[in-house]
Amino acid sequence: GVNHLIRQGAVLVESARDIITEILPQLGPGQTVPRERPAKPSLPMAPAALPLVPPDLTEDQRRVFGALVEEAVHVDQVGRTLGLPPQRLGVLLVELELLGLVKELPGKRYTRI
Question: Under DSSP, is residue 66 helix (H, G, I), strand (E, B) or coil?
Answer without folding.
Answer: helix
